[in-house]
Amino acid sequence: MQDSLKLSSRRGLLIAGGAGALALLVAPRLVQAAPALVEAEIKKLFGDRKPVDGRVKLDLPSIAENGLVVPLNFEVESPMSEADYVKAVHVLAEGNPNPLVASFFFTPMSGKASASTRIRLAQTQNILAFAEMSDGSVHAAKAEVKVTIGGCGG
């Protein structure tokens, strides 16, 4: 009877181990934001306004050794006057489970539309920065970051 329990325990251990290995292979694909989620977030933020390249300088490392702490800096060209200023900058990560990483809000009194922070990235992916201007226009920048160790896992 004890032999059948040991066999049962070994079999259970092998099955559990196999399921765990399968989860490790499949899980990274499940946590990635679907392109539809990224598009939906952009649509939610800007409606039908089409972002154009320019005015946004996005500074990220091309290779991040650890996805838990990826430095991000941005600056938007703007006089920051009452007539022409940056209202907001939204940062999205195409491969994270939740694509909207951060939003920064500005007024003409900000003096400069720039910020520095650290973000988490699950895997190698594109980072998108969108600057929403006071005249309603939207400017964009994109940069790829290669992540060697992901930072959005459990």
Could you characterize what this model shows?
- The protein has 154 residues and is α+β, with helices and mostly antiparallel strands.
- It has two domains: 1-31; 33-147, SoxY domain (Immunoglobulin-like), CATH 2.60.40.
- 27% of the residues lie in helices and 36% in strands.
- The chain has two helices and nine strands.
- The strands form two sheets. Strands 1, 3, 5, 6, 8 and 9 form a six-stranded mixed beta sheet that branches. A three-stranded antiparallel beta sheet has the order 2-4-7, with no helix packed on it.
- The radius of gyration is 22 Å and the shape is elongated.
Q: Report low-confidence residues grouped into runs of 5 or more.
A: 19-30
Summed up, the domain count is 2
Structural class: alpha+beta
Mind telling me which CATH architecture of the largest domain this is?
Answer: Sandwich
Quick recap of the structure?
By secondary structure, this protein is an alpha+beta fold. It has helices at 2-31, 35-46, and strands at 52-53, 56-59, 63-64, 70-76, 86-93, 100-105, 113-119, 125-133, 138-147. It is built from two helices and nine strands.
